[in-house]
């Protein structure tokens, strides 16, 4: 799909991977709606790229429905959804203060996994009503997992489970929508230089970066964003997870 002139929804669009994906898709000619609870960030990026900032809690059905309706009114039904919204708190199952509070686990799953499904179901419903493009394509959903989905470290039980769920949704969703020309893909990043990592002490950053076989550095948000654009343009990419990790395999801790 050539994204030029088509509408795209990006969750978590106010910072990090979502913001950079918005920039890359906008440069390619897409009409970008940046969905986020961080409206200051979303507005700043939207002003930069000529997009639209919309408040959205991806884990809430009404919030997501209203956000997609606002984006549809601004740009028309979206042909592309990129799920970047997520949280990554670290907490052991049983720590010094006892068992992890169940609500802490639930919150991560609700944002990362249920939020991705929430946006998928709503965006796909719009895509199904669109006319076919070249190759019979109607739309594309790209969700963000993590290498923690298969190699989660100590303290990542909630995060790893949520991202494994994102990966697990992909194949049945892609199979369901294949006959209607909607593709479903997942990207599983390793260590990407987003504010979450770059706010860590330098010695911690250096230690983490040294674990990446090649190149010996964090990935850059633009490398994620350019992969999203390539997935848009390469119609043969469907029902798969692409690791973006520099050959990294995470150890237990």
**Can you write the helix and strand succession as a string?**
EHEHEHEEEHEHHEHHHE
Number of DSSP-assigned strands: 9
At CATH level 2, the architecture is 3-Layer(aba) Sandwich
The percent range for strand residues is 15-25%
Spans of at least 5 consecutive residues with low confidence: none
Q: Structural class of the helices, strands and pairings?
A: alpha/beta
Strand order of the largest sheet: 3-2-1-4-7-8-9
> So what's the overall shape?
globular
What is the helical fraction, as a range of percent?
Answer: 40-55%
Task: Tally the structural domains.
Answer: 1
- How many angstroms does the end-to-end distance come to? 40 Å
- In the CATH hierarchy, what is the superfamily? NAD(P)-binding Rossmann-like Domain
Q: Which value, in Å, is the CA radius of gyration? A: 18 Å
Mean pLDDT over the residues: 96
Tell me the CATH topology: Rossmann fold
Work out the helix count. Answer: 9
Return the CATH class.
Alpha Beta
């Amino acid at each position: 799909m050539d994204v030029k002139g088509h509408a795209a929804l990006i969750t978590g669009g106010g910072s990090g991977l979502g913001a950079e994906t918005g920039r890359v898709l906008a440069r390619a000619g897409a009409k970008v709606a940046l969905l986020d609870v961080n409206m200051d960030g979303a507005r700043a990026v939207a002003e930069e790229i000529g997009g639209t900032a919309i408040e959205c809690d991806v884990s809430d059905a009404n919030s997501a429905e209203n956000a997609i309706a606002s984006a549809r009114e601004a740009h028309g039904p979206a042909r592309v959804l990129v799920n970047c919204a997520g949280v990554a708190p670290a907490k052991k199952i049983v720590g010094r203060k006892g068992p992890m509070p169940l609500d802490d686990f639930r919150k991560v799953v609700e944002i990362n996994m249920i939020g991705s499904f929430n946006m998928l179901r709503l965006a796909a419903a719009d895509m199904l009503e669109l006319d076919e493009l070249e190759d019979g394509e109607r739309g594309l959903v790209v969700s963000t997992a993590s290498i923690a989905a298969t190699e989660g470290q100590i303290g990542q039980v909630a995060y790893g489970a949520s991202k494994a769920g994102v990966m697990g949704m992909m194949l049945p969703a892609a199979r369901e929508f294949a006959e209607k020309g909607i593709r479903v893909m997942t990207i599983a990043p390793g260590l990407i230089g987003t504010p979450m990592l770059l706010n860590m002490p330098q010695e911690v950053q250096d230690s983490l970066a040294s674990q990446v076989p090649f190149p010996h550095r964090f990935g850059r948000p633009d490398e994620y964003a350019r992969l999203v654009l390539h997935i848009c343009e390469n119609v043969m990419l469907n029902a798969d997870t692409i690791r973006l990790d520099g050959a990294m395999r995470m150890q237990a801790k």
